[in-house]
Amino acid sequence: MTDTDTANQGNGAAPQAPKVNMRILAQYMRDLSFENVAAQKKMQGANVQPDIQVQVSLDAQKRDAENQYDVATKFKITSKNKADDQTLFLVELDYVGVFLVEGVPQEQLHPFLLIECPRMIFPFARRVISDVTRDGGFPPLNLDTVDFLALYRQELQRQTAAQAGNAAAPVQN
């Protein structure tokens, strides 16, 4: 036994966990759509009271390069008039970050990619949505912060429920 081995055993130090390294290599809009329905229908006046619905979905895929991943955050935002349920505008944004991720254990990689990575690029996607709604003739829409951990947990529950439903369903020929 070497002096180093003896020293490590004596102080009870646990083996060092690998250091996590995450960097955003690039980010871009894969798809952006804005539809100003209110202007097309010539809606105006004091009776316009927007009700905004935001849907967020996530996707992550391995790239060909080692330890690199595409993480897509997809937003679908619909604004309807509370008075008559007419659509005012619709925004769809598919915002992607290219990440280098090293040192994350394989069993923790999926939640890391779908929680931490979207958290890093969210402010940039929020700015795009704010700019496009402002440039589209509406007050800038500043999205509230998204709880990506809660979103991830909801998706796991949905998948578990879907699997339980498929297991209970009879097989038909």
Automatic annotation (TrEMBL):
It is found in: Cytoplasm. Pfam families: SecB. Its main location: cytoplasm. It comes from the Bacteria. Coiled coil: none annotated. Keywords: Chaperone, Cytoplasm, Protein transport, Translocation, Transport. InterPro entries: SecB, SecB-like_sf. The keyword Protein transport applies. One of the proteins required for the normal export of preproteins out of the cell cytoplasm. It is a molecular chaperone that binds to a subset of precursor proteins, maintaining them in a translocation-competent state. It also specifically binds to its receptor SecA. Belongs to the SecB family. Homotetramer, a dimer of dimers. One homotetramer interacts with 1 SecA dimer. This is Protein-export protein SecB. The gene is secB.
